[in-house]
Amino acid sequence: MLKVLVVDDEPPARTRMIQLLAECAVIQPLETVGQVGDGVAALEAVERLKPDVVLLDIMMPGMNGLEVARHLAARPEPPAVVFVTAFDEHAVQAFEVQAFDYLLKPVRQERLAAALARISRLQPNEPRLEEVARKLGDARTHLTVSERGRMILVPVEEIVYLRAELKYVTIRTAEREHLTEESLTSLEEEFGNRFVRIHRNALVARPAIQGFERVRGAPDEEGDSGEGHWEVLLRGVDERLAISRRQWPAVKAATKPNG
User: Fold this and answer.
1) 3-class DSSP state for residue 4?
2) 142-254 belongs to which CATH class?
3) The pLDDT of residue 226
4) How confident is the model at residue 121, as a pLDDT?
5) To the nearest 10°, the Cα dihedral for 27, 59, 69, 137?
6) Low-confidence ranges of the chain (pLDDT < 50)
7) What does the pLDDT read at residue 93?
8) Contact between 209 and 255 (Cβ < 8 Å)
9) How far apart (Å, rounded) are the C-alpha atoms in residues 42 and 47?
10) Bridge partner list, 142
11) Tell me, which fold does domain 2-136 have in CATH?
12) What is the pLDDT of residue 157?
């Protein structure tokens, strides 16, 4: 039996979807396990209810459906996602090319039943709609981390820096640190407008940069000072991060008032 979660910011749309699911239940064994009205609540509900299917509205305030799907994709066993969309004809064609499921508002019972039937036949290794979300979505507003078996959302605007260490990347906010297995390179590609690379293993949020300070190098055996390096001063944390000589010109240019 499929367990279904309904996500839509409009209460009448959720009510209508639940009615359609009741009609589909006559021919397709399913259970509506919950309904929520925003993206963050959707992620919390998935964590709590463990649905097999999420009927996910795309156009929602705050975290939209595309970002929700990307966070769900990070789960070890993500639910199948069916987007509910009022996208125009060209965007719908983009879904059709990928042969993934979507529901075009106003949703028809026959179309919903067909989507659920296809999901019931999904194989474990079959690509799912989250890949389309990744291709069509903009940069996320949150990063997903797993701690003690719980999924935690870290707002990107609160991140001071990202630093690669061994197989993990440390996410540093003013309050604490988190770890993610996402690569620093992929994070730079997605959030390059907000972060600047200061070292091969570190990205710093531009709004968190308070200034720079030149640090003299350690003296050599003859007492002569070494070449030294620049460090970045950060708002919200006491740490200073070294800027590599290779990155210093780019960092200086990227943080100019008109840069």
Assistant:
1) strand
2) mainly beta
3) 58
4) 82
5) 140
6) 97-99, 220, 222-225, 259
7) 58
8) yes
9) 9
10) 155
11) Rossmann fold (3.40.50)
12) 96
Distance between CA 120 and CA 134 in Å, rounded?
23
The reported pTM is 0.76
Question: Amino acid letter at 157?
Answer: E
Each residue of 75-111: b (16+ CB within 10 Å) or e?
beebbbbbbbbebeeeeeeebeeeebbbbbbebeeeb
Give the pLDDT of residue 75: 79
Strands (E), 122-239: 142-147, 150-155, 159-165, 168-173, 177-180, 195-199, 202-205, 209-215, 229-234
Residue 68: burial class (beta carbons within 10 Å; 0-12, 13-18, 19+): buried
Helix (H) or strand (E) holding 80: strand 80-85
Q: What is the pLDDT of residues 59-85, one digit of tens each?
A: 898 898 888 988 888 777 888 888 888
Q: Where are the domains of the chain?
A: 2-136, 142-254
